Amino acid sequence: MLIDEKKLKIKSGDGGEGLISFDNRGKAYGGDGGNGANVIIVGNVNVYDLSKFDSNHTYKADTGDRGHTHCRHGKDGEPLRLEVPLVTKVYNMEGEELVSIEEDGQEFTMLVGGEGGLGNFTLRGEGWDGKLSRKRATRGEELDIRLELNLKTEAILLGYPNAGKSSIINALTRARYKVASYEFTTLEPQMGVMDGYIKLMDLPGLIEGTSEGKGVGTKFLKHTKYSQLLIHCISLENEDLVEKYESMRKEFKKISTTLHDMEEIIVLTKSDIATPEEAVSRQKEFNKTTGKSAILLSTYLEDSLDILKKEIKSRLDSQKK
Prior knowledge:
Blueprint: E1 5-11, E2 39-43, E3 58-60, E4 80-84, E5 88-92, E6 97-101, E7 107-111, H1 127-131, E8 142-149, E9 155-159, H2 165-173, E10 190-194, E11 198-202, E12 229-235, H3 241-255, H4 257-261, E13 263-269, H5 276-290, E14 295-296, H6 302-320
Parallel strand pairs: 1-3, 2-4, 9-11, 9-12, 12-13, 13-14
Antiparallel strand pairs: 1-8, 2-7, 5-6, 5-8, 10-11
């Protein structure tokens, strides 16, 4: 199950206390305490979702070590690095966005650790009173945050339920997602990588009224924000392909202007349910009526998969120019 939201408690490290200490001649030689550690959010392309985080756990960074004798400084705490997938948005509990982690290796310091206290060696210049005093360490900061994952892929597959999207992503990426001949087999985003570098995502099937909360609703809309290409899947099982296409396009517009305006590849799926002649005839009729150019596809036919692969790569390459 994809976990795309988590609430966390985080705390930076407290500073270590400075030391009051004297050598055998009565000279101050207590060292300063180390600084408490920061809490850092780090983007990691190899992290898939937020499932590793526990909302009931407080993520605490290391406390700085106390000062040592012989004027030695206490060790600073090691930063706590929380690795998150791309793209992860971090919000406070008031809903204010604090940072968006969009790149592999991107870092953001969420909380700064407390400062280490000063030992009496550092304060020795203040006279005898200095020798008997120390500056106390400061405590770390605490914060409640909410992590929201917005999956980052090159292309998304959308369409009515049972349009064959899971079969396509399995065929293109060698993923092994569940496939069945009933609606809503896919209930959460499914991802795969085509040819080692192109990320594809299959989103749960949409229905008329999705924009109003019907079916799976729009809870996965956030996962479309960073995609470049929409692969619109329409099954040849539908009698009126044009009506299905146009009704879904209307739903796209209601859901999101960004989704509606995204560059689109139209795929007429499950072409193997018809004879080759009938499938081609329906493709030509669709293209003529809509003024679009749809790809005819069967996941059982390698040639048709190759055509779709080439089209995906061509569209993505053209966007880079």
